[in-house]
Every structure is written in structure tokens, then in C-alpha cells.
Design brief:
Shape of chain B: globular
Largest sheet of chain B: 7 strands, mixed
Structural class of chain B: mainly beta
Oligomer: heterodimer
Radius of gyration of chain B: 14 Å
Number of strands of chain B: 11
Order of helices and strands of chain B: EEEEEEEEEEE
């Protein structure tokens, strides 16, 4: 099956710093999503981005599908940005579909 | 619009028992998927339902089963619980309407945290 690798696995930043999280995948995908998992376990949708670039406030994401990677940029980080960031790619088999997740990047933003 | 809801939020069971978890998708969403999250294995796909039919299943033993009702609500069942079944179980819904080549964003519920003792 498809492999999804995220880097770095852990990242510690000072408040106000910028960061780039990377997601590599091993095969063609239908779409790609970025999530932030809050301390209670819920996955919060950040971006639905099969290709191209999107921005939402201090966050932006770029997916280069032909080169099989996606980047999540966090600018001017805040302590509330702490948590685990997952990328997930969707693969299909006929009409069936599923998300395959990377192992996540644990982000800690220090005050 | 209300998000995906899951009940119960927390559950403690004993080895050998069975458990049923419930998921109500976002109104209008007909596709429901289930995922298991553990510290060792990460987030893994369990199954996907659309129009009351299971369309896809992940690599889990037959003790894991599910179903979807006509109102798109879904339940998953785990029989003969093992300690390794302790996990966060997440449900996701999407607006998928049946087209093969069409993809839709998935939205997740808050999860059910199952502890097996």
C-alpha cells in the first residue's frame, strides 16, 4: 500500500517563529488533507489540498502532486498551535476510498 | 451545521466483552469511515460505508464489524475485546455521493476512547 512519511517527527519552537512541516507519499493520490489533532484527540481540518497552494491566516499549504509531497507552513507560531499535525492521503479502489495517515509531527510552541 | 458526533466519548470494558460505538455524520453526508488510533500503530483505516453498504475494509480481524443505517448513522462493534483494542476510535463523514472519480473532504468526530482492562 501507499506509504506516507512526515518530517520532522518532533519540532520545538519559540513563540513567534516560523516552521515548515513536510509530507511525502509514495504513489499517486486523489487528494491530501492536513489535520491538527487537539489535546482531546479530535482531528481539526486545516487544508484539503490535492494540488496547488492554499492559505488560511497564519497557515498555508502547498502540494506538488507530480513530485508526491506537501508542505504545511506555520508563521508567527503561537502556543495554541501546539499539538500533532497529520497529513493524510486518499486512495481509491473503484468506488471505495480510504485515508492513509502519516505518523505525524509533534509541534511544541514555547511561550 | 452540527459536526460529526460520536457516542460514548469514553468507555472502559473488560477483556472478552464486546462493545458498540456509534457515529452520526454531518447532516447530508452519506459516507462514513472509521479509524483506530493507537500510540504504536498510529491512525489506521477500519472500514467505509456508503448507502448502508460496506465498500472498503482495512486490515483488521473479523472481530471488528460495522454497519450503516438508512439515515447514514453508523455503528461499529468489537467482539471478544483484547487489551490491544484499547484505542481512540474516530469516525469521519464526507459528502461523497457515489461518483467514482469524485473526492470530498472528510470531517472527523471527537472520537471514542476505549480502554480494555
Amino acid at each position: 500500500g501507499i506509504q506516507v512519511e512526515q518530517s520532522p517527527p518532533d519540532l520545538i519552537l519559540q513563540e513567534g517563529a516560523n516552521s515548515t512541516l513536510r509530507c511525502n507519499f509514495s504513489d499517486s493520490v486523489n487528494n491530501l488533507q492536513w489535520f491538527h489533532q487537539n489535546p482531546w484527540g479530535q482531528l481539526i481540518n486545516l487544508f484539503y489540498i490535492p494540488s496547488g497552494t492554499k492559505q488560511n491566516g497564519r497557515l498555508s499549504a502547498t502540494t506538488v502532486a507530480t513530485e508526491r509531497y506537501s508542505l504545511l507552513y506555520i508563521s508567527s507560531s503561537q502556543t495554541t498551535d501546539s499539538g500533532v499535525y497529520f497529513c493524510a492521503v486518499e486512495t481509491t479502489s473503484g468506488s471505495a476510498r480510504q485515508l492513509t495517515f502519516g505518523s505525524g509531527t509533534q509541534l511544541t510552541v514555547l511561550p | 451545521k452540527a459536526g460529526v458526533t460520536q457516542t460514548p466519548r469514553y468507555l472502559i470494558k473488560t477483556r472478552g466483552q464486546q462493545v458498540t460505538l456509534s457515529c452520526s455524520p454531518i447532516s447530508g453526508h452519506r459516507s462514513v469511515s472509521w479509524y483506530q488510533q493507537t500510540p504504536g500503530q498510529g491512525l489506521q483505516f477500519l472500514f467505509e460505508y456508503f448507502s448502508e453498504t460496506q465498500r472498503n475494509k482495512g486490515n483488521f480481524p473479523g472481530r471488528f464489524s460495522g454497519r450503516q443505517f438508512s439515515n447514514s448513522r453508523s455503528e461499529m462493534n468489537v467482539s471478544t475485546l483484547e487489551l490491544g483494542d484499547s484505542a481512540l476510535y474516530l469516525c469521519a463523514s464526507s459528502y461523497y455521493t457515489g461518483g467514482v472519480a469524485i473526492s470530498y473532504e472528510q470531517y472527523f468526530g471527537p472520537g471514542t476512547r476505549l480502554t480494555v482492562t
